[in-house]
């Protein structure tokens, strides 16, 4: 691994420690300014009129009545978009405001700004849109192969990724088939989409917004507004969770449009219902698998077809498809693989990034298959996994050789060998499936244990120029050396600001480190996604430290007349005097390559993260209610830069996986969202969250800064299949769909 | 010293809206029906006497955030299903999104901004930081206000009790283990 | 919009008489959701939080309880667990602790949603609703209170002032299925009360029909079984077949639909399980004379 630079060891709060978060006191005092808290004394409020239909032609839009409402400052449609009325992360295929067609339930059609949010909403209701309702395309598989309508010019396939490796006609003595489904999960971040756009005198606009990626927002806003980048300036407002759901635009262009039309600052805040329409979701998936193995449980071949429902617009579907395909066989050695993975346009809500990003859907399916294989072989489910486990030096189905630690078997053993949680004691309803709703006093309750392991790519893939920029300023303040670190990388709760401080402290041996607000006055920081920020922005911060340090040491030569290997804080003060050293560095991880379009071969991913779970559940088999008793995780993180934050990420990913396993789903019928509220889109509460012991391995990746490995997503992959495996163990049911609902546990035939 | 600056948007913009419609206490209008159909409500917020004249449909949450600039109390769902807007009314915790301001004439309201003793954090605030009881922090004011009430009610004796009593506060980052640990620690310190 | 803040019941009733379209609001936990989303825009709101007569409970002469319509769920749980065991069990499952600090049985009845958590218990114990107006007071058995989806016999000039609950002469149970272990709306729910005094049983079904329902056939069946076997006098364990039949009859009494919270088939199935189990627990309590199993 890369050795950490020599540091002055007296520093505290450096890497490997868990110093307190710099934003912690503000957050616990209620003083941290989230995007929804922004206020400007002259501001007006913007709202969005959305389509009530999943698929309809717009015959006409009449704004007359809306414009008459006193207090209304602007009512805008697609005709008011000055630039190109298109945006999108990978394909600019989504209108800022619908033109003559709406392709999903909730698609923005018009905007209103008024002096009060209620006035704006009332005016919005007076906009008359005449729709010709069309039949929605709602089945992804049918959209690919069927004879239905083409929803976009190039057809309904956003992307197809094939993988062909080894013998395509391989046979095996033991074969298991399965068809699996994954429901539409929502990120459900608690802080709704919101921001404040302030028109500037230079004809530009300043936008304060909660996002995951300032520069990609900026690019899309410029395109839609027809403005150069220096006229669209973004600053990150406080982010109330993200989980992928803020990678696409929500209020960004709309608020800027309204600000430029009204000449006033415009605040937009979605309520919870609108939030369900206002961001992309996790792709629902249908997955067909066939695993062939020898009688001693070694995989001979795997064949798979995966359909990911991308909904009405592309968003990040192409990358999700690549992930599901390349990671779709799991962390297992298998020589002969066939994969066809499609991302598809339908009239369902658009889907894109959510923690786990394609690997979650595949993980549920391939881990379910491994359990099925174990059952067919009469083998222990951990043993069949260990027998096929990848390790360093293994070859991925893409031909890529794993060139750093891949402790798949060890992770499985760690969770398997943990002591089991205690059996249920005296009756306490809170420990029962159903909780205090008093559904069982032990009747029908069966315990089950399940295992799963998963793999997730870290950082952006397939040849993407994935980099981050860090600007570091070092000066003497109040007699102490003080650094200011400035990046455009989004802190969304994961603790990146803490990590940035830790790296600077470690690298420069100083204590006082200020994190500058993230904005677009510094270069691109890349997205807060793909578990990449500690790796890439962390790498950039480290590189900026090295550049500053080099200058500092040069200065030291002039000051001391001889080179110094190291400087104490006092020496830094005397070397610097009144000088300021500032360095801006762009840092890239090693390049990846595209996938071969025919065979899916290539060095597509820069790093892989692995995690394993053991779930212990109590299932009320008569009522179909589940209580997860314990959810143990083992994960390799390369190097825990902040051990407390690492465990927090593992817990967070595990619980979101638990949610997908047993309760979380946006229910969509014929393109219509049926449960856009927290009353009916259920998220785990603290009572649903079991003890979650964690084993953290630190097997350094020599290619990564400090040897670290991205942490946030891998636990989300294995959590869901482990919980479902445990429910299967308790019930004997096949359970091929998540979330598992009480109906599935009580009204289905045993397998 | 550690600083983090990405924070006081209001300070940065320098354009903080004042509590536009705060009426002096001696207006004598409390309880009276204003001609426009608005209602005047006198109450104590974080120890300070306050009077607001509002549309009767205004929630306590909106009044705190938009009229009193107390934005520490968060709006997460508008229907009492997330707990981010939890505050204390006369010592009891309520979800302020489902509490009509007009019903609170004479009430005493405590929000997250009123919990610390000046610069000294409340034991729960300190414990939430130490135990990493949050990530994004959006639910945190509600979690802390809820936990303060639970401890005061004596309802935090066991982990099971804490889990039941805190089940009205969603944390999507799922920092629940840290929240549990923080409440355990503060429970001891608050005795 | 008018906001009416009466400070006595008399004032509240005359306000409601003057403005029958005024929407009463106590805890607000139900009405406020509709106001927040602008689903409802009443011309007036009638704040009942300052009416002292609504905020108290007292024993009645016959050993029952008169529960003011404005007593929040938290007080039912902490103060009335022994007097009103079934209602306290149901109250513990309402929303979140924060909601329980504000929400009231009066609000549950006023909304008359089939998913309201207290209805099954009120039906099972044969409670009555006290309705008042300037015209006078009437007491309506809760079994006659619900008339349709979110509809009741409440007249536009009336207020729900109290619920009258008979003395708990025997064990009571409440059980509710939700797809999360806390803070969840019922997929379906069931209330059961044994009345050893007159040898009858009461039932209530929630979230499985246009209104809260009684399982009358199940009540008759069980009443008959208990009488035929002289089981009230010499309480033997109930046979499995009796408990199952009871569960089936409860399921048959339901009229559920498919919705986002669950399918009709599941609701029927779950009700049969809840009915069977709650009967088992209640009968066990009766046999052993033990306390309510409310862990």
TrEMBL record, chain A:
InterPro entries: Ald_Oxase/Xan_DH_a/b, Ald_Oxase/Xan_DH_a/b_sf, Ald_Oxase/xanthine_DH-like, AldOxase/xan_DH_MoCoBD1, AldOxase/xan_DH_MoCoBD2, AldOxase/xan_DH_Mopterin-bd_sf, Xanthine_dehydrogenase_dsu
Top-level taxon of origin: Bacteria
Region (Disordered), start-end ranges: 1-22
Every Aldehyde oxidase/xanthine dehydrogenase a/b hammerhead domain range: 29-135
NCBIfam families on file: pucD
Protein's name in the database: Xanthine dehydrogenase D subunit
TrEMBL record, chain B:
Keywords, alphabetical: Iron, Metal-binding, Oxidoreductase
Domain of life: Bacteria
A Pfam family that the UniProt record links to this protein: Fer2_2
Residue ranges annotated for the 2Fe-2S ferredoxin-type domain, each copy included: 39-115
Gene3D superfamilies linked to this entry: 3.10.20.30, [2Fe-2S]-binding domain (1.10.150.120)
The protein's name: Xanthine dehydrogenase YagT iron-sulfur-binding subunit
Organism: Kutzneria viridogrisea
TrEMBL record, chain C:
Keyword presence, Metal-binding: no
Record key words, sorted: FAD, Flavoprotein, Oxidoreductase
Pfam family, one: CO_deh_flav_C
Taxonomic superkingdom: Bacteria
Domain spans labelled FAD-binding PCMH-type: 1-170
Cytoplasm keyword on record: no
Full protein name: CO/xanthine dehydrogenase FAD-binding subunit
Natural source organism: Kutzneria viridogrisea
Taxonomic lineage from the root: Bacteria, Bacillati, Actinomycetota, Actinomycetes, Pseudonocardiales
């Amino acid at each position: 691994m890369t050795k950490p630079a020599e540091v002055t060891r007296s520093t505290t709060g450096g890497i490997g420690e868990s110093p307190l978060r710099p934003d912690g006191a503000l957050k616990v005092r209620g003083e941290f300014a989230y995007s929804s808290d922004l206020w400007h004394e002259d501001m007006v409020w913007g709202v969005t009129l959305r389509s009530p239909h999943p698929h309809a032609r717009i015959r006409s839009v009449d704004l007359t009545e809306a414009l008459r409402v006193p207090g209304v400052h602007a009512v805008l449609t697609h005709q008011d978009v000055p630039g190109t009325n298109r945006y999108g992360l990978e394909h600019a295929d989504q209108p800022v405001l619908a033109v003559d067609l709406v392709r999903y339930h909730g698609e923005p059609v018009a905007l209103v700004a008024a002096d009060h949010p209620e006035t704006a909403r009332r005016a919005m209701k007076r906009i008359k849109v005449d729709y010709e309702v069309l039949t929605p395309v709602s089945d992804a598989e049918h959209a690919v192969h069927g004879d239905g309508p083409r929803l976009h010019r190039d057809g309904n396939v956003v992307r197809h990724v094939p993988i062909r490796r080894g013998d395509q006609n391989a046979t095996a003595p033991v074969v298991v088939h399965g068809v699996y489904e994954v429901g539409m999960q929502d990120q459900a971040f608690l802080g709704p989409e919101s921001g404040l756009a302030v028109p500037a005198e230079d004809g530009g606009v300043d936008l304060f917004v909660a996002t995951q990626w300032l520069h990609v927002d900026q690019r899309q806003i410029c395109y839609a507004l027809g403005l150069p980048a220096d006229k669209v300036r973004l600053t990150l407002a406080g982010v109330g969770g993200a989980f992928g759901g803020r990678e696409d635009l929500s209020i960004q262009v709309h608020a800027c449009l309204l600000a430029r039309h009204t000449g006033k600052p415009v605040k937009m805040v979605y309520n919870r219902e609108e939030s369900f329409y206002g961001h992309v979701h996790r792709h629902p998936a249908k997955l067909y698998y066939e695993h062939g193995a020898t009688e001693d449980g070694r995989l001979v071949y795997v064949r798979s077809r995966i359909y990911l429902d991308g909904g009405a617009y592309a968003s990040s579907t192409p990358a999700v498809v690549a992930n599901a395909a390349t990671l779709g066989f799991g962390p297992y050695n298998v020589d002969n693989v066939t994969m066809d993975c499609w991302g598809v346009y339908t009239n369902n809500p658009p889907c894109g990034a959510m923690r786990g990003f394609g690997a979650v859907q595949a993980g549920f399916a391939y881990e379910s298959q491994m359990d099925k294989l174990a059952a067919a072989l009469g083998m222990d489910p951990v043993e069949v996994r260990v027998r096929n486990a990848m390790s360093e030096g293994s070859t991925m189905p893409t031909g890529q050789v794993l060139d750093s630690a891949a402790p798949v078997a060890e992770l499985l053993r760690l969770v398997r060998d943990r002591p089991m949680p205690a059996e249920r004691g005296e009756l306490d309803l809170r420990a029962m499936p159903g909780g205090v709703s008093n559904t069982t006093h032990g009747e029908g309750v069966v315990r089950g244990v399940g295992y799963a392991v998963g793999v997730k790519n870290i950082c952006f893939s397939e040849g993407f120029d994935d980099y981050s920029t860090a600007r570091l300023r070092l000066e003497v303040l109040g007699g102490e050396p003080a650094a200011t670190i400035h990046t455009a990388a989004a802190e969304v709760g994961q603790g990146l600001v803490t990590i940035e401080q830790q790296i600077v402290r470690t690298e420069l041996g100083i204590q006082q480190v200020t994190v500058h607000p993230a904005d677009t006055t510094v270069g691109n920081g890349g997205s807060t996604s793909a578990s990449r920020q500690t790796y890439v922005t962390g790498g950039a911060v480290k590189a900026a430290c090295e550049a500053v340090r080099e200058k500092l040491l040069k200065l030291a030569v002039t000051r001391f007349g001889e080179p110094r290997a190291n400087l104490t804080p006092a020496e830094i003060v005397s070397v610097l005097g009144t000088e300021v050293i500032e360095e801006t560095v762009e840092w890239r991880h090693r390049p990846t390559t595209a996938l071969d379009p025919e065979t899916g071969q290539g060095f597509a991913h820069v790093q892989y993260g692995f995690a394993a779970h053991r779930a212990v559940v109590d299932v009320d088999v008569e009522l179909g209610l589940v209580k997860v008793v314990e959810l143990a995780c083992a994960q390799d993180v390369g190097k825990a830069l902040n051990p407390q934050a690492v465990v927090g990420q593992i817990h967070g990913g595990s619980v979101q996986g638990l949610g997908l396993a047993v309760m979380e789903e946006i229910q969509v019928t014929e393109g219509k969202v049926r449960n856009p509220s927290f009353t009916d889109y259920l998220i785990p509460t603290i009572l649903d969250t079991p003890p979650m012991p964690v084993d953290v391995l630190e097997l350094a990746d020599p290619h990564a800064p400090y040897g670290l490995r991205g942490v946030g997503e891998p636990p989300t992959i294995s959590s869901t299949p482990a919980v479902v495996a445990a429910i299967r163990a308790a019930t004997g049911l096949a359970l091929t769909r998540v979330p598992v609902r009480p109906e599935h546990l009580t009204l289905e035939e045993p397998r | 010293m550690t600083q983090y600056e990405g924070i006081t948007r209001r300070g940065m913009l320098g354009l903080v809206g004042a509590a536009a419609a705060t009426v002096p206490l001696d207006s004598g209008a409390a309880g009276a029906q204003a001609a426009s159909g608005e209602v005047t409500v006198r109450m104590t917020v974080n120890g300070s006497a306050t009077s607001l004249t509002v549309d009767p449909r205004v929630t306590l949450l909106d009044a705190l955030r938009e009229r009193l600039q107390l934005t520490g109390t968060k709006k997460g769902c508008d229907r009492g299903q997330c707990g981010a807007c939890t505050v204390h009314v006369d010592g009891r915790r309520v979800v302020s999104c489902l509490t009509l301001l007009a019903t609170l004439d004479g009430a005493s309201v405590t929000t997250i901004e009123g919990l610390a003793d000046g610069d000294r954090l409340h034991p729960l605030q300190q414990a939430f930081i130490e135990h990493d009881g949050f990530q994004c922090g959006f639910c945190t004011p509600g979690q802390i206000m809820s936990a303060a009430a639970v401890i005061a009610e004596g309802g935090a004796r066991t982990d099971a009790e804490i889990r039941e009593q805190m089940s009205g506060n969603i944390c999507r980052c799922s920092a629940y283990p840290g929240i549990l640990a923080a409440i355990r620690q503060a429970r001891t310190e608050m005795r | 919009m008018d906001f009416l803040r009466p400070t006595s019941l008399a004032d509240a009733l005359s306000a409601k008489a003057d403005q029958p379209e005024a929407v009463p609001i106590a805890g607000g936990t139900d009405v406020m959701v509709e106001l927040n989303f602008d689903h409802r825009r009443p011309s007036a709101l009638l704040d009942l939080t300052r009416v002292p007569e609504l905020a108290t409970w007292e024993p009645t002469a016959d050993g029952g309880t008169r529960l003011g319509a404005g007593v929040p769920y938290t007080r039912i749980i902490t103060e009335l667990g022994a007097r009103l065991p079934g209602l306290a069990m149901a109250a513990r499952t309402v929303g979140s602790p924060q909601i329980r600090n504000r929400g009231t049985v009066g609000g549950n009845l006023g909304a008359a949603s089939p998913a309201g958590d207290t209805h099954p218990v009120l039906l099972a114990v044969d409670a009555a609703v006290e309705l008042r107006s300037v015209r006078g007071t009437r007491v309506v058995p809760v079994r006659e209170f619900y008339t349709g989806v979110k509809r009741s016999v409440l007249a536009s000039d009336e207020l729900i002032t109290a619920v009258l609950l008979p003395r708990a002469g025997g064990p009571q149970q409440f059980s509710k299925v939700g797809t999360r272990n806390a803070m969840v709306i019922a997929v379906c729910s069931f209330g059961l009360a044994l009345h050893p005094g007159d040898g009858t049983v009461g039932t209530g079904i929630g979230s499985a029909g246009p209104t809260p329902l009684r399982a009358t056939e199940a009540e008759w069946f069980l009443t008959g079984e208990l009488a035929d076997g002289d089981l009230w006098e010499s309480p033997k364990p109930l046979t499995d077949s009796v408990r199952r039949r009871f569960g089936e009859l409860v399921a048959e009494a339901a009229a559920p639909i498919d919705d986002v919270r669950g399918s009709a088939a599941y609701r029927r199935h779950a009700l049969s399980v809840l009915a069977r189990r709650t009967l088992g627990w209640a009968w066990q309590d009766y046999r052993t004379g033990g306390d309510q199993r409310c862990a």
